[in-house]
């Protein structure tokens, strides 16, 4: 399948990049955390508190399996811990092109120091936790990824520009609107009218 899946540590911008990319490519965006919250009828924080982390990890795998059942090509942003389960890697690959948004611990800390929604960072020394988790997780993010884009010190526009370029290089799409490009490829014609850009 040719979904675009965003992976990376908490705070790297997966959700925002996902939404922006969905505008650019006119694809639906899904977020595994949001799908899980909707299905469970509670927030991630409540799931961790009442069912525990391992139940949440099972839900993440279940969510990938459900996404594999849909045919539409989407942008999928994922929870930061999802690629830690090796069992999820073949599912990610089957879903499409996996993009790792790489970020430093310092940058994560800058972005999340006042955050209260991530259960894993509600501890005495969240910065140390970020450093430890990131050191442990980085090899697995790299292993799961087809494309790596570093986001440190870059604003959203720069990240999107680089990501679009890398997707193009990887042959994921060939222009600003991949629905139109796909139609052109299928019809063998370049006559499909291009709708106005929805970018903001
Ligand atoms: C987690 C990241 C969170 C969420 C949960 C666990 C993690 O998602 O899935 O709190 O283990 O890194 P974001 O990466 O969107 O913050």
Structure in words:
The chain is an alpha/beta fold. It contains 9 helices and 5 strands; from the N terminus they run βαβαααβαβααβαα. A 5-stranded parallel beta sheet has the order 2-3-1-4-5, with helices on both faces. Residues 187-200 have low confidence and may be disordered. Shikimate-3-phosphate (S3P) binds at residues 10, 14, 33, 44, 79-81, 118-120.
Distance between the termini: 28 Å
Annotation, overall tally of beta strands: 5
Order of helices and strands: EHEHHHEHEHHEHH
Overall 3D form = globular
Rg (CA only): 17 Å
| Percent of sequence in beta strands | 5-15%
Question: What helical percentage do the residues reach?
Answer: 40-55%
Please give the count of helices.
9
The SS-based structural class is alpha/beta
Give the overall average pLDDT. 89
């Amino acid at each position: 399948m040719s979904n675009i899946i965003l992976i990376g540590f908490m705070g790297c911008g997966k959700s925002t990049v996902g939404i922006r990319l969905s505008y650019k490519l006119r694809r639906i965006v899904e977020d595994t955390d949001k799908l899980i919250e909707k299905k469970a009828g509670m927030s991630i924080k409540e799931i961790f508190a009442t069912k525990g982390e391992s139940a949440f990890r099972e839900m993440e795998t279940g969510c990938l399996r459900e996404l594999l059942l849909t045919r539409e090509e989407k942008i999928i942003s994922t929870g930061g811990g999802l690629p830690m389960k090796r069992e999820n890697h073949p599912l990610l690959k089957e879903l499409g092109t996996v993009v790792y948004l790489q970020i430093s611990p310092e940058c994560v800390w800058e972005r999340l120091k006042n955050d209260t929604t991530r259960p894993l960072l509600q501890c005495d020394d969240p910065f140390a936790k970020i450093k430890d988790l990131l050191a442990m997780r980085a090899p697995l993010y790299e292993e799961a990824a087809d494309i790596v884009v570093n986001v440190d010190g870059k604003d959203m526009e720069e990240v999107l520009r680089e990501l679009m370029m890398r997707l193009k290089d990887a042959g994921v799409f060939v222009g600003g609107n991949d629905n139109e490009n796909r139609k052109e490829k299928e019809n063998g014609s370049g006559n499909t009218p291009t709708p106005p850009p929805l970018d903001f």
